[in-house]
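Homework help board

Subject: predicted structure for assignment chain

Our instructor gave us this sequence and asked us to write out the predicted structure in token form, then describe one feature. I got the tokens but I'm not sure how to describe them. Can anyone check?
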Amino acid sequence: MQQEKETSLGDGRRGRLRVFFGFAAGVGKTYGMLAEAHELLLMGKNVVVGYIEPHDRPDTNRLLEGLPQIPPKKISYKQIILTEPDIDRIIQQKPEIVLIDELAHTNAKDSRNRKRYQDVDELLNAGIDVFTTVNVQHIESLNDIVEEVTGIEVKETVPDTFLQQATIKVIDVEPDELIERLEQGKIYANENAKRALQNFFIPHKLDQLRGLAIQRASDHINRISGKTIGIQSKLLTVVNDAFPKMTEKCIRWTARLAQGLGAEWTVIQVRTQENTSTNIPLAEKLGAEVVSIEEDDSFETIVEFAKMTGVTDIIMGKNLRQPWYEKIFVEAFDDRLLKRLNDTELHLIPFKEEKQSLFFRTRKVIEGGGKDLAIAVGAVFLATIVTELMQYIHVGDQNLMLVYIFFILLVARTTSGYFWSALASILSVLSFNWFFVEPLYSLTVYKQGYPITLLIMLVVALMISNLMVRLKKQADNSMEKEHQMEILYELNKQYVLAESRKQILDISATYLSRLLEREVIIFDRQAKVESVHCATGHQSILNTKEEAAVAFWTAKNQKEAGNGTDTLIGAKGFYLPIVASGKTLAVLGIKRNASLDLENGQLNYLKLVLTQIAVILEQTELKNEKEQVELENEREKVRSNLLRAVSHDLRTPLTVISGIAETLGIGSDLKEETRQKLLTDIQEESQWLIRMVENLLSITRINMDTMKVDKTAEPVEEIIEAVYKHLKKVYPEGKIKVELPENVIFIQADPILIEQALFNLVENAFRHGAKEQPVKLTVRLQQEQTVFEIENYGEIPLKQFQKIQTNLSSTNEVPVDSKNGLGIGLSIVKTIIHAHNGKMEMTVGNGKTMVRIYLK
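My token output:
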């Protein structure tokens, strides 16, 4: 199973989609698809039938004969057996081409995906070419036009973005011929045919649908071939959440224009309500980038966005039912845009839609605002008491109104929405008139000028309260965004301190679990659990095989899945892929159900955090790859160094042995003394070869993949004793002085390798140092490091040591004879010390040479 997962994720080829496109049922889409499948089968292609809609059409059924078929999956729904294509079995069999009929079909309730085009997308991701059929009325961007033409709202649609890379083959017949087929019963049974002839299959409707299909196919072909006129390059659609019908109409209209011109386009959504979603699924389906902005100062934001991005065309709605007072007192939005954007074309889409009534928009506040009502009424009451006291102490009539204005500001500051501050303003004017304007305790006003004064007081109170509410709202939004940025900043600081992928994922899971107050789990791309965090006192419900299967699907398809989506909706979690550079890095799972849903703000913030996680994970992977490359380079340097050193060092003693052997072979008249001298030389050279082989065997103890060794705690005294015995055996006349600390020292090391390194260093000191002076070997502690010092009288060539320190990187440099120089001996020492994460240094001066090794 694990191997299958790796194979499916590793195959980067995406299958090709071929669409047989028509303007109505019965034009011959399925027939044409099957006919082409027969041709490909004769050419040797691996073609199978995944699913063909059973319309009981004799001509179509005959073409099914002879084509390999994968049996459809049967699903029981409300005591009816439904059939759907078996996607898992098709992927397992993996043919070259599979035929899937009715692309826009909605799957049965318990299917993995809600729509059939999502099933087809899985097949394409698996590298399988798919042939399918679809009618023009099922294209999402044409949905409103089809409804105008036919009077029928089509519910099953396919996003335009899904068909962008498809090849389209138009299946076309004359409308009269299509009607004739219907009358002959070749399309539907008799009863269905009669209804179709009365409703959908009407000549003028079919003519319009046919023209729409041909135009759509032409636009698609032009876009694919790059033959668009290329005048417009950037489209901008401005919509308002208060007009949902206008939003759909403008988006579909722009999608058709963008499709025909091959242009990029963006949708700006002006949000007037706090609970409005910040994304528009329809716009995203049709290939738009969605930007959501607040209503306050939205005009300036749109203008600056258009200038910054180089928008050439703006599309927006024109409400034909705009209230008369808005036309008189408010300048039209489109007129303001034309004044500020002289070089931008403006397209107005007419619509008739009224805003939600004031009562509807404030009903929620009124129903649940008992506390706010008490604050508003209480503030007016307190204002009246305070004003009464001020009048009693003769503060001045000109200051009485200011008391009410002050309490209105308090109401606007402490309540939610505009309603309560407006109510407080009205009650304040009435209270002031009742208690403080003659005649008292009456709403009648006799005093000259007071009606105007009260009217001005009301207007000022409303304006000030409105301004206060707007400032409060802006302040709350700013504080919320600032809080989010602070959290992201703190999270990024933790990411910087993290040293591994495991730590990054643990930080992310813990942070999101606490923020969302629910279980969070993170899988790798193979659906293995990497981190999980639950609320205190709760057990994990997402760490199961079933949920891991959903996570694997998400990783493979790089799409959201699980609860709250259209795919695998029976899952207990909501799964999002963490993607960077087109590669799935991990999958985030969040517990989600009807009682524990995710709000729009949480979803948007979650996706923002996912972006940060993706960036830091990608950086971590790049860092690991860089370290791996550096390690590989280090290994190559070591191999190169050893090969060059070995090739040179082996040649010298072998040449000597070969020469001596040849001399002994032909020199029968050699003196016995000379013969013994030559035999001694052979023995010395052989002993040298043996020691060099021991050096090479030492290197085999180092893991060349990680450049590490297996370490154990070893006493230094035992290692030095082993070195001393080996030296006395090989160099019985060599003088060596050993100094050890009084306390026992343990080091984490491979004792055999350290013995070999110390032996090589002392051997070099014997060879290059003064023969009459001893070599001094000292061991001491220095700041939690163990230091080995090898000191001898006589200066060893420092330049040659420096060449070895750089791994003899220059190909022009050849190590000196290891018998007389440093060669392979110090090269191996350096490799051993590097594998122990140690350091080696050499100093020359005052007639002495000192080599130090630092080990932790």
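Reply (TA_rk): Your tokens look well-formed. For the description, you could write something like this. DSSP finds 27 helices and 24 strands in the chain. That's the kind of observation they're looking for.
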